[in-house]
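Appendix B, example 12.
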Amino acid sequence: MNLEKYDPANKRALCPWHLEDTPSFIYNPKTYSWHCFGCSRNTDIIDAYMHTGLTYLEALQKLFEEAKMTVSFGEKNVRSKRQYRYPKEEPLNDKAHVYEYLAKRGISKETVDRVDVREDAHGNIVFNYYDANDVLCLVKYRPSHKINKAAGEIKAWCQKDADTTPLLFNMNRVNTTAPLLVCEGEIDCMAAIEAGFTNAVSVPLGANNYGWIEENFDWLEQFDSIIICADNDEAGIKMQKECVSRLGSWRTKFIDIPLYHHDAEKDRDLPMKDLNHVLYCEGKQAVLDLIENAHEQEVPSVVDVSDIEDLELDEMDGIYTGLQGLDTEIMKLFYGTLTVVSGMPGAGKTSFLSQLVCQSLEQEKPVWMFSGELPNRMQRGWFKYIMAGNQHIQQYFDQNHTDFYKVDADATAKINEAYKKQWFLYRDGLSNTLDELLKSMEDCVRKYGVKLLILDNLMTIDLGANENSELLKQTDCITRLIHFAMKYSVAVVLVAHPRKMPQGEDVGVYDISGTSNIINLAHRTIALRRINKEKEQNNYDVCLTIVKDRMRGRQWQKVNLYYDVGSRRFYGNEKEYAFQYSWDKEQHPPLQYPHSEECEVLGSCYSNGGNT
């Protein structure tokens, strides 16, 4: 390691990672590693090998060779993905433009070469993304000059005619036994390395794209400590929160980039954007200080009231149901909340839940669902009809003249392709204990970014209860679902059946089968009831009653809806009846709305607060 002022008796030297006059880099024979008491950095033999330019895999191989131990790591650089169009390696051209531009941003030639940044024939910067086996899977480019956004210049692009995998930049040169720094951009990653923190990576496709978590999930699980460093903007703040939630608050820290840098010459404060900006304006030590002093999550069981930000309902994130009348009343299925859905058999709960799934996917919010009554194939079919709509559904008759409906094959194929890795059904036949369901929910929230989770229904969940503990176990179930929703900032929906009651009556606060805490603890309860059109002189098909809404401090709001048998959709107006999901790129002739005359008379096709 070319240590300076090395004292062999005390195994002490000057730290190679930061400038110091007094030796504070000390070897610990118990951990087989060095620790610097000046910059707090730990260094083991893998770090030492990688410091010479080896990748992590190469360093491991060298370690076992030096120890004269035979271990098979598999073949290096093996392209294992079938039908994957691997990118072509840009030749090692002269990097004069790249060196010059990055030097202006405080990045040295040594760091550029360390992370295998290259230059293409047009003078653009080339970022090579390798997987953990040193296979080149993604190549990105950006101009080697300041981006002219006004002229419409593109900031970055991927190699043409090659596939892309959301790997992490520099992940093949990272020691998995040391803390990992995740930056928002490649140059921020290089700024950390330039400052001396080499265990750094960058996300591939911007702050709003989290595909890298799913793609590299098993690799990320190896780290005991992860530090998130995003940009000083709205997207960066969102990335920070999402990463802490999905990567695990117990091991994830975050860096707050200072808002301003004081320019002494101009005697004014200038905005600070990212980690590279810190390196450029304040130097290497400032970068290391930010990493070393990354913020840990506070004790999760308490919060200082003075630190709580005011949050209005219109500022809360969540999922719209897509039904104007219902969204007018509840605004959204807010993240961090539990909604209970109830209703008598035949009231349309399956259609309602499936429509929630479709609307969540339309808003690019992945879904997890446990269906204790419908097998996976039937639940998928229900979803397919709603997603297809009447534009892609045909009516048929069997030999007994019984009518039935089918979604055309082309639409089915397009739906399957459009929502791959977006909707996850709990597999048929697996354990239905609450612990196993929560484990599956947690895995999908963290790995796939699921935001809506539906459990249908409470009676099909194994709570491990007996006759004497059933109500207590139900209360425990509700409490754990609420805690889950709050911990991961997701929307959870639980179906709870009502007791036997006369047809036509609304489900009330005390009509849910089981403990009263199901309603008392839930943030919202929505009940469905089929409308007796002749008796009630109401042309709608189903009434949705918001039995209780703790978020808005209201109850007993009613929303009347129509139901279409062919598409299995609820709707309250013509737009909802003919709604075309984004997978469908075709232009279709207008559908004949079945209630156009009623709408002209009534003025609207949904009920607000019970008044049509």
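The first strand starts at residue 12 and ends at 13. The chain has two domains: 96-292, 314-602.
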